[in-house]
Specification:
single chain, 759 residues, alpha/beta, 28% helix, globular
């Protein structure tokens, strides 16, 4: 059987000679490679870059899932050093050179790998293999590192992902009794880290900042928890949190978790209508908000939005618990006396919470008790209340954070996401604090007062781990290198990307300019529903390919299926599904389990269907191609929007692009591209033609955009998500159906796009 091989890198000469331990990948034979015989027992074919084939038996094929065989099909490795030089490879090593478009691989540096939690691909395979063969033992060992009031039952997990066999059900650590707030705070304090900084807070205005140690954070959490208990909030009750990125936001989340209440964080900036939908669905006992927030130069009056939402909810027969609206006075954005107030309902946080005791008993909960609701909204229909439970989510977020960022106790970690999204839940609040990390929380806009603000913050707090979205990377890339290079950034050691596939050119800029070509990038793929990372690089463990999420995390079994649900092996493209459950998986959609089953498990029975498209290359690397509903069918060609966008932004004069499909009387659909040129480049017919040629060159003539729509900016939420729904309406000239644009960071960009529609 022919197999691929991947290696542990022990560099003798990083450009020419490598000593390697070899682990094998299943694959189909390919021609055109020269044959070498290092010993009499195996034929080795050498190719570039870094592919070696070994004719070997697959001793684990009968015991491991097919997906594992796409990664590794052998349990032994070559013990002798390969006595030859490999041909020159298209690769670059961390810290040694800039990554260019000609480089297929970015190799981990030897020094970085030596100190990494997972120091080689061999080590990863050993851990991954156990997580698939013995998930109960693997996750039990990790869970035992956390505090449990009572250990889980004999059955670590149970699941059914096949809708044809009955109700979809996922349970992990059932009957285990724990509390995630206790594990985030008390456990770290009991370990001697009470005086360690838990949160550095940076305000919108430079110079406005604060910090809390773990001891101080616990005191604040207990005070709010006691206040909520005094006002009737009990285990299982829901609490809506509508706060910006103040320290009070993670405090409110942890306070809810401490008393067993179910928090539902709503992104501060969602419209009153969106807030009403969430209030109507989860019927909270309390709404926690603040009077206003300043992002950049813009003030958003959050209290007015809450007032409107509570009024409309009341008219629809839903009143908030004891009609309580706890409001934090954010006086850097708005003075208290300027805030509209209802005396019978509204309470100032600063007037009541600090008066409460700093000691609050923990409400111990079952691992399968609800932790939080997070609503995801599509372009149509009722928002989906994704429900995560306590135990499995706790273990999974803590573990993914530790390994995907190679976290060390001395690290300073900054994730630019808002806690109104799943990234803020898993990788601002819970995952880092469960590991005893120091976290930076930033209130303001990333380009205020200028596009160098991020790197000013990195230098100020000596940030070592920086996690952000490709949209922000492309935006800062557009502003030019000088805003980055004026700052040191020497503290950085690992970068991360989240939210959408990052195109290779943005990846290289992030790597070369921000990370000075010495920081690995954890280009993570996961979803609100998955709770934590599913496919992600592990820094130091294996070479990276710019734009690829690489390999699955421990316990995750991704499969790529065709439209009939048939699993595809080797190099392929199709629908990304997950086989079997993992601890961080969401358990249901709140109040609508039928919708949960229909949306995620009916398309391909036996699998969780992610809704994303994915390609796997001949080396086993995974490439996310975007949502399958973002696939455009042009004359029978199914073209992923992310692929076209990547081709467009590879053009040296394109800063950002967003692609949608619109109806075409001949082709069925055609490709409509919104393009933002780099600063100083004018719109022109020559540029338009050059962009089309770039797509034709990278993908093919069939993928060439029919329309290039110049865009001074794209409609984005304050978290950086591009609102493609709005772009589709503009492209289709359905301007009376644009819908709610209040959540946009800059609503004026919509009018600008409409004005440029026929330019």
């Amino acid at each position: 059987m022919a197999v691929y091989a991947c290696f542990n890198y022990d560099y003798i000469n990083c450009n020419d000679v490598y000593r390697k331990s070899c682990c094998h990948f299943k694959g189909d034979p390919q021609l055109g490679r020269r044959r070498i015989r290092p010993n009499a027992n195996s034929d080795i074919l050498v190719s570039s870059p870094f592919k070696i084939r070994v004719d070997s038996g697959n001793l684990f094929r009968s015991r491991l899932p097919v997906m594992v065989n796409n990664l590794t099909a052998a349990h032994h490795h070559l013990e002798s050093t390969l006595p030859y030089k490999l041909p020159k490879l298209k690769a670059v090593t961390l810290g040694e050179a800039l990554a260019s478009a000609d480089d297929d691989l970015v190799l981990p540096g030897q020094d970085f790998s030596k100190q990494a939690h997972v120091s080689s691909f061999e080590k990863y395979l050993e851990m991954y293999k156990r997580s698939i063969e013995d998930p109960a033992g693997f996750w039990s060992d990790i869970a035992s590192e956390f505090y449990w009031k009572q250990k889980w039952g004999q059955q670590v997990y149970s699941d059914n992902l096949d809708i044809t066999k009955g109700k979809i059900n996922i349970e992990w650590f059932k009957d285990g009794i724990t509390n995630i707030c206790y594990n985030c705070l008390d456990k770290n304090i009991n370990s001697g880290n009470g005086e360690k900084i838990a949160i550095h807070w940076e305000g919108n205005e430079p110079g406005l900042d604060g910090s809390l140690t773990y001891n101080q954070l616990l005191d604040r959490v207990c005070q709010l928890a006691n206040y909520m208990k005094e006002n009737g909030v009990r285990k299982g009750d829901s609490v809506i949190i509508y706060l910006p990125m103040l320290m009070e936001l993670p405090i409110a989340m942890l306070a809810c978790a401490r008393i067993g209440a179910v928090h539902s964080v709503v992104f501060a900036g969602f419209s009153a209508e969106s807030l009403v939908q969430r209030i109507m669905d989860c019927k909270p006992k309390i709404v926690i908000t603040c009077n206003a927030v300043r992002r950049g130069t813009k003030v958003i009056n959050l209290k007015d939005i809450v007032d409107a939402a509570l009024s409309e909810s009341s008219e629809n027969g839903i009143s908030v618990g004891r009609s309580l609206c706890l409001t934090y006075g954010n006086e850097s954005a708005m003075k208290k006396e300027a805030t509209k107030w209802q005396k019978e309902r509204d309470v100032w946080w600063q007037d009541v919470v600090p008066e409460c005791s700093t000691k609050c008993d923990v409400e111990w909960v079952d691992a399968e008790d609800p932790l939080f609701l997070l609503y995801t909204s599509g372009s149509t229909g009722k928002p989906k209340g994704v429900l995560h439970t306590t135990g499995g989510y706790m273990i999974y977020t803590a573990t993914t954070f530790k390994y995907a960022f190679d976290f060390k106790p001395s690290d300073i970690y900054w994730c630019t996401a808002d806690c109104g999204w799943i990234t803020g839940h898993s990788y601002v609040a819970y995952g880092p604090l469960l590991n005893g990390a120091t976290v930076v929380v930033y209130e303001g806009a990333p380009n205020y007062p200028d596009p160098g603000r991020c790197w000013d913050i990195v230098d100020k707090y000596k940030v070592t781990l920086f996690y952000t979205a490709p949209t922000l990377v492309r935006s800062l890339m557009r502003d030019g290198n000088e805003y980055v290079t004026r700052y040191s950034r020497k503290s950085l050691r690992v970068l991360g990307s989240v939210g959408e596939p990052i195109n290779p050119s943005a990846w290289r800029w992030f790597f070369n300019v921000v990370g000075d070509s010495r920081c690995p990038i954890s280009d993570t793929w996961w979803q609100t529903e998955t709770g934590g990372f599913m496919i992600t690089p592990l820094p130091g463990a294996w070479p990276q390919k710019p734009g690829s999420a690489t390999f699955p995390f421990f316990g995750v079994q991704p499969v790529i299926v065709d439209e009939n649900g048939k699993e595809l092996e080797g190099e392929c493209s199709g629908y990304l599904c997950i086989k079997n459950s993992w601890p961080g998986a969401f358990r249901t959609l709140y109040g609508d389990h039928e919708r949960y089953e229909t949306t995620y498990f009916s398309a391909f029975p036996g699998y969780y269907f992610s809704g994303d498209g994915c390609s796997r290359d001949k080396d086993g690397y995974h490439w996310l191609t975007g949502r399958v509903d973002d696939v455009i069918n042009v004359s029978g060609h199914r073209i992923g929007t992310a692929e076209v966008e990547s081709a467009l932004v590879s053009h040296p004069q394109c800063a950002e692009a967003a692609v949608v499909g619109v109806e075409h009387e001949v082709k069925g659909q055609c490709i409509y591209a919104f393009v933002t040129p780099i600063e100083g480049v004018a719109y022109s017919e020559d540029l338009r033609k050059s962009l089309v040629i770039a797509v034709r060159t990278h993908i093919g003539a069939f993928a060439a955009p029919d329309k290039i729509h110049w865009a001074p900016g794209l409609p984005k939420t304050r978290s950086g998500k591009i609102m493609r729904r709005i772009l589709r309406k503009i492209a289709s000239r359905q301007l009376d159906e644009l819908g709610d644009t209040s959540t946009l960071a800059d609503p004026n960009v919509v009018d600008q796009l409409i004005a440029l529609a026929d330019k």
